[in-house]
Structure formats: C-alpha cells, structure tokens
Design goal:
Blueprint (H helix, E strand, L loop, with lengths): L1 E3 L2 H13 L4 E6 L5 H13 L2 E6 L19 H10 L4 E3 L3 H4 L18 H4 L3 H16 L3 E5 L3 H13 L5 E5 L19 H6 L2 H14 L5 H14 L2 E10 L12 E10 L2 E10 L2
Parallel strand pairs: 1-4, 2-3, 2-5, 3-4, 5-6
Antiparallel strand pairs: 7-8, 8-9
Helix pairs in contact: 6-7, 9-10
The protein binds pantoate (PAF).
Length: 281
C-alpha cells in the first residue's frame, strides 16, 4: 500500500490504473477506522480492481462547538488496518492540500440537507457535499462506497451525484453493529462504560418502532413519541426520531412502503445516530 499526500501524485497513480483499464473503488473516511469502515473496503475490493481510501478530518463539516479538534486521529493504526486490508493507496492529505484559503465555492443539496441532522448541525451537509465532490474530482473513482449508518449523508451524496452528473456509482453498505446492536461509530469511543451499556437502546427503539409498523400500527406520530419517551428514561436526549420515506426523508405517509426510521440522540456528551430501513408490505 502506498500512502500519498499530494493530489498530483495520487492522480499519476490513478491515471496509470485507468490506462490499464482498471476500475477504481473509493472509500472516503475521516479515519479512526473500525470494522464498519473495513466492511466498505472489503466491498470495494470485491467490486473494483483498485481501492483508494482517503483519511481527512474535514473541518468544514463540523459546526462551532462540535468535536473537530478532539475528533480521534489515529493515522498509524489506521494505516496498519488498511495495509492488512490490502488497500492500494491511502490518500492522506493535509488541510492545505485540500482547501484554498480563499476558497469561495460550496455545494449545498437543498431540501435533503435541511431536515433531521441538518437542523441541529447547521451547514454540516454543505461541508460533506463539498468535500465529497472535491474528493470525487481528485480521485475520479468508478464506484464510491458509503455506510448506511449515515443514511441522510448517503441520500445527500446520491442527490449531488445525480444533480451534477458526476460519473460515479454510489454503493451503500449495511451498517456494522456490535453484538449488542450498537451501530459502530468513531464517536462510540467517547462513551463511558455506563453509557456504552445503555447505547444499544437506540437500536432497540428503532426495532420496536419498525415492529409496530410491521404489525399494522399506522399511528406514526404516536410511535415516534413513545420511542422518544422510552429513550428519555435511559438518559438519552433524543434530537429526533422520525419515520420517513426512505427516498427523500419526508414524513412517511401510511401508503408509503419504502420506509426508514432515523434517529439522533445525545447520551452524555456523545451524539449518536442510527437508522433502520425496511419495506412495509
Ligand atoms: O462519513 C464520513 O466519514 C464523512 O462524512 C466523509 C464522507 C468522509 C466526508 O468527510
């Protein structure tokens, strides 16, 4: 595995692959890699000839007072994991390589970015869309791999790719979970042992809501409120718990069949997100 810091060098390598008609897979990350990231790499290895992983803690997607400066940076451990996963290139740029100090262009995916996490994390999805678009322009992958754990992010990126005709196929990879159901996340490391024991309740709430819908309960607002109240009993401060159409995150109508329940809740100092998508027959 080569570790590359400059766009110029990365482009030279990728050009040589493209000349050999090799398909390029791309996994963008912010590092502190866990099994969830590695499952994206494994999928990329299966689907493409060459795999590029980027690690870049993107400042523009963190709001004021969020955890940008304390976000876990574990480059050496990450490098070892990617080497063992037989990644071809790790792209590890400095901030100066990515952002011009007088940059004046941003990408905003209107609508999809404004609800749910976009309400509390103002500007977050503009930061995500802008960096992902820049990385797509830098890497020019055939396929890019994203976890379904960040469901809203996945929809924002799909919409951006469609609207801007970016020639990349977006692949969604199922959420990796701990044995107790907790969705894997770099931020789980912030939880105390007591909070770690409570955290799986978030997924349990999603499952209960889904099960209620699948047995015919159509009172979606009531189901949402019940789960919010249930989570509060265990110390969560739910930000939202919403039953939505899985294509656009609009509140689900009872006639909708493609559903996703998405939630974000604060536990101690940690903001956890999770979701569950399913088909209502
Ligand atoms: O999901 C993430 O880790 C980040 O939002 C991404 C897609 C790498 C953009 O910085």
């Amino acid at each position: 595995m080569q570790t590359v810091h400059s766009i110029k060098q990365l482009r030279q390598i990728i050009r040589s692959w493209q000349q050999a008609e090799e398909k390029v897979g791309f996994v963008p990350t912010m590092g502190n890699l866990h099994q969830g990231h590695l499952s994206l790499v494994q999928k990329a290895k299966k689907c493409t000839d060459r795999v590029v992983v980027s690690i870049f803690v993107n400042p523009t997607q963190f709001g004021a007072g969020e955890d940008f400066s304390s976000y876990p940076r574990t480059d050496l451990e990450d490098q070892n994991k990617l080497y063992n996963a037989q990644v071809d290139v790790l792209f590890l740029p400095e901030k100066e390589e990515i952002y011009f100090t007088d940059a004046s262009t941003e990408i905003t995916v209107r609508g999809l970015s404004d609800s749910h996490c976009g309400t509390t994390r103002n500007g977050h999805f503009t930061g995500v869309a802008t960096i992902v678009c820049k990385l797509f322009n830098i890497v020019q992958p055939d396929r890019a791999f994203f976890g379904k754990k960040d469901f809203q992010q996945l929809l924002v990126i799909r919409r951006m790719v469609r609207d801007l005709n970016i020639p990349v196929t977006i692949e969604a990879v199922p959420t990796m979970r701990e044995a107790d159901g907790l969705a894997m996340s770099s931020r789980n490391g912030y939880l105390t042992p007591e909070q770690t024991a409570q955290a799986p309740k978030l997924f349990q709430a999603l499952q209960s809501a889904r099960d209620a819908i699948l047995v015919g309960n159509e009172k979606y607002t009531e189901i949402e409120q019940q789960q919010i109240n249930w989570l509060r009993q265990f110390g969560f401060q739910p930000d939202y718990f919403s039953i939505c159409h899985s294509d656009n995150l609009k509140p689900a109508k009872t006639s909708d069949t493609r559903l996703v329940i998405i939630t974000a809740a604060i536990l101690g100092k940690t903001r956890l997100i999770d979701n569950l998508d399913f088909i209502k027959a």
